[in-house]
Automatic annotation (TrEMBL):
Keywords: Calcium, Disulfide bond, Heme, Iron, Metal-binding, Oxidoreductase, PQQ, Signal. This is PQQ-dependent dehydrogenase, methanol/ethanol family. Ca(2+) binds at residues 201, 282, 327. The active site is at 327 (proton acceptor).
């Protein structure tokens, strides 16, 4: 096991460690069915991904509250070994914090001091990063009966000892010859660890699996979309319902690109109805015209699905977007609650998925109770409450002309967790606005193992309310991009209060019994608001964009708030970020308490390298050919601030060195796989010609100075 180099910074020393609750090391990670059933009253700990099986992300602790939060300060900080995206929610069990980091590594710390207890590296193949649609992130671990479970970016599920970090078992959960990845946090129920996978953009068939926590043996599997009919049944829990309900909703040869429907984030155990409720993702390819000849609902894409946790047998489903065509997923957080609606107590689930509607369902049967937009949206007139189906605007399917979609595939709400406070009755949503112009790709060519959407992403088309001039139109659409923290009333289906943010990609939320809501921002601020009124009353600068969800816990009578900071994910790789003008610093876990006396590690912004264009002469034909290949293969990873900006690459003036990276895989260990299966030498050099022209433009613009935070 290769150990990464980590650095811990805290002022608390050996004495503090000696009195921490980690003294009972032989009982590390003792979480079981009975304990999780009582997690709501176990206020000291954060035992599972959303604290309890209901995944409300509400901590009842109120030692830190809206009256004394001015005394909240840093208790400790633990710096990581990578500047890739950090999305994990930590688990805290009896004074020990367990969390995953980028590249699927696992860390255990003393939750009171930040002292490193152990770390585990699954040693994933760096080249696998090419199959990660949205960075080499990992959203967390599960802890059960002395074991810590983590899914890896190369599709494995691993159990390690909660006391020592030593590997116990390691199973491959996917066909590793295909572009599957795992980024989700596992969930555990009834001695079964539940895991899904990612990769729908690249062409895979989604499913969710249950493995025995003791042995790692497969217990059951449920495929979310039908396979090739010629192959017959899968021998899986899903066979009957796929044949009976799903297969008749598909057309053409959907199986050639898998169909999609990956389960990459939300899985919730509903103990009251003894069911697993699962969020299912988008289609592969996105474009319904290509995926299914433009026909059929394509079950179970963009659905919420309930199955029996013991057998995986189907119970019910609700499909939010029949015939999905926009990357509208229902993988976003599912939260369980008891609400009184129209005077009647209801057992509900709540979800704010990408499509911009807030859904409240009866979780006993999956029937729609209500659905209203929580952000501006233009793809549907409404959700029909009788049928549960959206009443779409015909132009939204971009069959004949481009459509400027709001929300877009980025989502009105991505994976960042929302929280629900039973004190205020409000859901706190990290919402976004990011318009995107969709157009049918008339010349769609499949590139196996790469992004295959069937969509052309264009400059914003002419439409009412936008300027005629293209440059002005692009500027106007860019100005629409924003983030919001929305306090949503799920009964009235309306916003109680909102906080506008200048950039969309902000962190998850935590609600507490101290009338507080915490959220991190893309600009590195970790902030607290009053839960009832939305007044900002506290902020701390971490110097790293925050996208992960915070937690609350208590050790030795002291309450802590903790969050993992480190910018990344899909927008971190694929979206130009104007305010980020520095090399990204390594991620960091930070924890706060009243009267904390720790200091952050020293931080000096590191300047970006200047543009480094070659003085070679390239033809217009080379540059145009390179532009097309760059957009197909490079832009998705090299436009945002997380991965190297190729306009600043030293290899722009080194044709041989460029090929050694692009075709030879010289940097595979760092995540830059060889593209020799996709590009010829001539095409690789054409990309260099195009990027070189962009470097020249950047250099001539004078926009090469760097300002760090």
């Amino acid at each position: 096991m290769a150990l990464a180099s980590f650095r811990v910074c805290c002022l608390l020393g050996i004495l503090a460690f000696g009195i921490s609750s980690y003294a009972a090391e032989d009982l590390a990670g003792q979480v079981d069915q009975a304990r999780l059933e009582q997690a709501e009253t176990d206020v000291d700990n954060w035992l599972t991904y959303g604290r309890t099986w209901a995944e409300q992300r509400y901590s009842p602790l109120d030692q830190i509250n809206s009256d004394n939060i001015s005394n909240l300060s840093l208790a400790w900080a633990f710096e990581l070994d990578t500047n890739r995206g950090q999305e994990a929610t930590p688990i805290v069990v009896d004074g020990v914090m367990y969390f995953s980091t980028a590249w699927s590594k696992v860390v255990a710390l003393d939750a009171a001091t930040g002292r490193l207890l152990w770390q585990y590296d699954p040693e994933v193949d760096g080249a696998k990063a090419v199959h990660a649609c949205c960075d080499v992130v990992n959203r967390g671990v599960a802890v059960w009966k002395g074991r810590v479970f983590v899914g890896t970016i190369d599709g494995r599920l691993i159990a390690v000892d909660a006391k020592t970090g030593k590997e116990i078992w390691d199973v491959v959960t996917v066909d590793q010859s295909k572009p599957y990845t795992i980024t989700m946090a596992p969930r555990v129920v009834k001695d079964k660890v539940i895991i899904g996978n990612s990769g729908a953009e690249l062409g895979v068939r989604g499913y969710v699996s249950a493995y025995d926590t003791g042995t790692g043996e497969l217990v059951w599997r449920f495929y979310t979309v039908p396979g090739n009919p010629a192959d017959g049944p899968d021998g899986a829990a899903s066979d009957d319902v796929l044949a009976r309900l799903a297969a008749p909703t598909w057309y053409g040869e959907w199986w050639k690109l898998g169909g999609g429907g990956t389960v990459w984030d939300s899985v919730v155990y509903d103990a009251e109805f003894d069911q697993l409720i699962i969020g299912i993702g988008n289609g592969s390819p996105w474009n319904h015209q290509y995926r299914s000849e433009g026909k059929g609902d394509n079950l179970f894409l963009s659905s919420i699905l309930a199955v029996n946790p013991d057998t995986g047998a189907y119970k019910w489903h609700y499909q939010a977007n029949p015939g999905e065509s926009w990357d509208f997923t229902n993988t976003q957080q599912i939260t369980l609650a008891d609400l009184t609606i129209d005077g009647v107590p209801r057992k509900v689930l709540m979800q704010a998925p990408k499509n911009g509607f807030f859904y409240v369902l009866d979780r006993s049967n999956g029937k729609l109770i209500s659905a209203e937009p929580y952000v501006y949206q233009n793809w549907a007139k409404r959700i029909d409450k009788k049928t549960g189906r959206p009443v779409e605007r015909p132009e939204a399917r971009y069959k004949d002309k481009p459509f400027l979609g709001q929300p877009s595939g980025i989502g009105a709400h991505a994976w960042m967790p929302m929280s629900y406070s039973p004190d205020t009755g409000l859901v706190y949503i990290p919402a976004m606005t990011f318009p995107l112009a969709y157009a049918h790709n008339d010349n769609f060519v499949v590139h196996e193992g790469r992004w295959n959407t069937g969509v052309n992403f264009l400059d914003p088309p002419e439409m009412p309310g936008l300027p005629k001039d293209l440059a002005a139109r692009k500027k106007a659409v860019a100005a629409m991009r924003k983030g919001e923290l929305i306090a949503w009333d799920p009964i009235k289906q309306e916003a109680r209060w909102k906080v506008r943010r200048g950039w969309p990609w902000n962190g998850g939320t935590l609600a507490t019994g101290g009338n507080l809501v915490f959220q991190g921002t893309a600009h590195g601020h970790f902030e607290a608001y009053t839960a009832d009124r939305g007044e900002k009353i506290w902020s701390f600068q971490t110097h790293r964009g925050i996208v992960a969800g915070p937690i609350g816990y208590r050790v030795n009578g002291e309450q802590y708030i903790a969050v993992l900071a480190g910018y990344g994910g899909s927008m971190g790789m694929a979206t130009r970020t104007p305010f980020e003008k520095r090399k990204m610093p390594n991620g960091i876990m930070v924890a706060f308490k009243l009267g904390g006396e720790a200091d952050m590690p020293d931080y000096t912004p590191e300047l970006l390298d200047p543009p480094a264009p070659s003085d070679e002469s390239f033809t217009d034909a080379q540059r145009e050919a390179g532009r097309k290949e760059y957009m197909q293969f490079c832009a998705i990873c090299h436009t945002g601030p997380v991965n190297p900006d190729l306009r600043r690459s030293m290899f722009l003036s080194d044709a041989e060195g460029w090929e050694s990276v692009v075709l030879g895989g010289a940097f595979e260990a760092n995540g830059m796989a060889s593209f020799a299966n996709y590009l010829t030498e001539e095409e690789a050099q054409a990309i260099r010609a195009y990027v070189n022209s962009q470097a020249v433009t950047l250099l001539e613009s004078g926009a090469t100075d760097v300002k760090g935070r």
